[in-house]
Amino acid sequence: MQTFLVTGGIGFIGSNFILKASKERWANIINLDKLTYASNPQTLIQLQDSPGYHFVRGDIGDAELLSHLLKQYQPDAIINFAAESHVDRSIVSPQDFIQTNVVGTFQLLEASRAYWEKLSPQKREQFRFLHVSTDEVYGSLGPTDPAFREDTPYAPNSPYAASKAGSDHLVRAYYHTYGFPTLITNCSNNYGPRQFPEKLIPLIILNALHSKPLPIYGDGQNIRDWLYVVDHCQALYLVLQHSQIGESYNIGGNNEQTNLTVVEKICAILDELVPKPNFNYSSLMTFVKDRPGHDRRYAIDCSKISRELGFEPKEDFNSGLLKTIQWYLSHPTWVEQVQSGAYQTWIKQNYQDRIKVPSPRARS
Ligand code: NAD
Ligand code: TYD
Fold this sequence. Notes:
The protein is α/β, with parallel strands linked by helices and 364 residues long.
């Protein structure tokens, strides 16, 4: 069996990837994660005694640790999920985004290249470095613009998107300069189990369950393309197995939705699953001050991955949302653990000055 070094594997997408990899016996996994505020150490607790899984707490920017881990575990592939990942936090304090997403990725590339250069010719040939990135590097679309393709020029608008764009450029350069066998994926918004509740979907689910306001930025008409996280993980595995080196792939769900629709759908599911007498969850919807520089629309053209690697998302939005909500309802301890003091501080910081604004309907 192969060995994968997964970075950021306690986070949302990384943990879903590791669970799927373990279940489907893709590889033995070394999980390197710094355990920032966005991760719950209990997330993969069910794997702690599994012989094919090893967790290491550490930073992708720590060159010495990386060189030691690579030597010890001799991975066949590295999958880089580790990142600061929340746009709103990148607006409030961008420093950590540059440190992890740009400098950290650089250190990981350097250590991995040094390791790869010393491998036997056969292992060298098979080795892969997969960098997991976002569609946000392409910037914002107008209502009728064509969806992002792999050759759409980069135009990142937030410090988060700019830091991911920087890391993508470094990864690309390591392929072109050194022949280092890299792969890049740019995916749309993910949703599903184990997402930290600072992001829209889990935030809305948990606020609704606690009868708190459901904050909708601006007019709620911003559009995102939503993909169920397990489908994303499957796409990553296809890229790892079948892609030519140096390639990049866009991954999406063919599922553009306005934020308002997303929130309304969550409320409708909760009305069914957790009904309250004479109460609709949608009555908690609250329009608040917009995010600065808020990208209006993202849309992904994923015809390349579909054509070349046969990828199609399996989950549709209604069934995926239902599964997601059921997961949050059935994991109250996980939810309690992530809604710690640090989380409460963030909620205060991000929302207390976002004054409530009248709904667009009342405004017109
Ligand atoms: P997340 O914030 O849930 O998890 C990130 C993980 O990385 C956390 O466990 C954190 O502790 C770890 N980490 C942060 N800095 C680290 C460092 N310096 N060293 C080691 N570990 C570190 O993020 P996510 O939503 O799981 O996203 C994973 C990757 O996928 C990111 O690179 C993100 O840019 C990309 N992505 C996310 C989405 C999405 O919708 N969530 C969409 C497309 C791409
Ligand atoms: P988010 O989950 O932060 O992902 P991203 O900014 O990477 O797309 O936000 C998704 C959309 O939801 C985005 O358009 C911003 C909006 N949003 C709200 O309207 N209210 C909120 O409280 C949050 C966190 C996001």
